[in-house]
Design brief:
This protein is mainly beta. The protein has helices at 59-63, 84-92, 129-134, 167-175, and strands at residues 3-4, 25-27, 33-51, 66-75, 99-100, 103-113, 122-124, 138-148, 155-157, 159-165, 205-207. A hairpin with a 2-residue loop joins strand 5 (99-100) and strand 6 (103-113).
Length: 208
């Protein structure tokens, strides 16, 4: 979809924007605005969220916010005992499983409502239980705004948050190969000058 604004790239929807905390990506279509990301390696999704600000003096940023968001996934070819048709058949039992109109290898796993009336800026796009139990490896994910809050010219998007683990992460967690106690905070240093480092997985490709 077309991009408007001060050269803001679609990848800014996932990363911390270099333009500041109030940077929004504007999609030229008011309906069916879509955004997708391909991961560097296949991942197991654990949590999805969307974040949008609240503005008293910028009504355009509010009425162009997404109201209904559909989530589509493209499975990794390395997923064992999970093929696309199996996922579609299971998803259809929950009124999901529709193909993404821009790439039929993506299937819809859920449709969600983002509420501007809710004071929580970050709202969960909860993964369905059938999808969690199936535990498929995901190569790519796509978000599509089916409806915004009334803006006829464009849709504004702020930030998607994707939490996931790699195959190696899952093996470590399931085999409990190291004695890490998550209930006890680690002591990084004995001096007050210690700094903690937060590591994030970043995408290598984004497309609208």
């Amino acid at each position: 979809d077309s991009i408007q604004g001060a050269g803001v790239r679609p990848v800014e929807l996932l990363q911390d924007s270099r333009y500041g905390p109030s940077t929004y990506w504007q999609c030229g279509d008011s309906q069916k605005c879509s955004w997708a990301i391909r991961f560097r390696e296949p991942l197991y999704l654990t949590r999805l969220s969307y974040l949008h600000g609240r503005f008293n003096n910028n009504l355009h940023a509010m009425n162009s916010a997404p109201q209904t968001i559909s989530v589509y996934v493209k499975l990794a070819k390395t997923t064992k005992n999970v093929d696309l048709q199996k996922v579609i058949s299971l998803a259809q039992k929950f009124n999901q499983g529709q193909r993404f109109n821009r790439d039929d290898q993506f299937i819809r796993i859920g449709q969600y409502r983002y509420s501007l009336a809710d004071n929580k800026l970050r709202q969960s796009l909860q993964l369905p239980s059938w999808f969690i139990q199936l535990k498929p490896l995901v190569r790519s994910i796509a978000f599509e705004v089916d409806q915004n809050y009334g803006n006829k010219r464009f849709t504004s998007l702020r930030k998607f948050i994707i939490n996931a683990v790699t195959q190696e992460d899952l093996i470590i967690m399931e085999t409990n190969t190291f004695p890490l106690r998550f209930s006890d905070p680690p002591e990084y240093a004995s001096t007050p000058t210690a700094h903690s480092v937060e590591c994030v997985k970043e995408p290598i490709q984004g497309f609208d």
